[in-house]
Amino acid sequence: MRRAPALLLLSLAAASPADAADDAIEGMAGPYGERLRYDPKGLTLSFPEPEVKLQIGGRLHIDAGAARFSRPGLGATFPDTVAVRRSWIEPTLTIGKDWVVAFQYDFSDPILPINDAFVAWKGLPDTILTLGNMKVPFSLEWLQSNNDTLFAERSLANAFVPDRRFGFAIGHHGQAWTAVASVFGDAASNGITGDGVAAAGRATVAPILEERETLHLGVAGIVQSRARGDGAFNFSTPAEAFLFARPFVDTGDLPDAARVSRIGAEFAYRNGPILVQAEYIHAAIDRFAGPGGALPSLGFQGGYVEAGWVLNGAGRAYALVPKGGTTYATFKGIQPRDDQRISRGGIGVFELSARYSAIELNARGFRGGAERDVTLGLSWYPEPNLRLIANVIHGRVQPGAAQSDALGTAPFSVDTILGRLQIYW
């Protein structure tokens, strides 16, 4: 048994590429029929009976940028002009056709390092049952992989979307529709408890679902109940760049949040190399009664409209069903053809993008701030596992009360240039 890993590595080193077209290297079968393979999807260890595969993937995102405020006296924009945005290891274990065990760990995040950590069962027709830490089924933009979003960061409206949470989800799909229902607690990295209990659901339909053309419509909602002993709640967002040291709009801590409700609407249309996508999200916070009686509820909103154009490629395919979890009905990333790869004499694939996003955290005498951003982007895909992103962002900010000490109360604008090196396998 101890010699098996060594034999696998030796067989992999001695093997020739299984297929020159996809740069796969496959080792000879080991003493128990196990086989090691390396390809653009990562490192995969497979066993013959029962069919078991362990795929080890990962991603590394490195950001660099510069920014400028329109008003002096606001302090430094970035604490560091270069930083690691993500550094993930992603093993996935597949057992037969029915079981998937997924795990993601971010070495660059000391607060919430555990991302996906779930077990999924697909033994029922067109149904996936998932238990563990996963994405809450809410928002098309959030459910898309951060490898595949049109821009380096998601929009301002993503402030209303919870991070991954521990819970149970059931998803079902037809030929052109999906439905997911789930119950969640807190994140696994936070110990599951301490942020109430949430029920979430999402439904999508694709009236047009063809290889070249897709029309996507979706609606989702979350209702989260919280106890008085739970931690403080807040909504906040930076100006669509990870490098900023602080958010510009922020509700501040809301220790009296009793129930948080969110509802979102999704639209996307893809025709060949062109993709147009939009979302609107409304969030409401009902508060515990204070000494003077009931406190008014707070209503916030946000959304975005974005478009992408692949200049010399086929565009983004539509993925109706995930391997596990809740990421139904999303758009995949760009994959250059073999003849487009720079290692094969090509120039890669280029994608232009533009976005307008907005968030409003002011309500009924409560001032959390407001922001509007316009972003232009260019992505270059020189190889299947490599992407370079350049974003130019212009934001207009009305600071909230929670940020008034650092940012004052007068509106200001901020201009940002952001670049990212993105490696994933």
UniProtKB/TrEMBL annotation:
Keyword Signal: yes
Keyword terms, alphabetized: Signal
Family matches, as SUPFAM superfamilies: Porins (SSF56935)
Signal peptide: 1-20
Pfam families for the chain: Porin_O_P (PF07396)
InterPro entries per record: Porin_dom_sf, Porin_O/P
Record flagged with keyword Signal: yes
Protein name as it appears in the record: Phosphate-selective porin OprO/OprP
Organism for this UniProt entry: Methylobacterium brachiatum
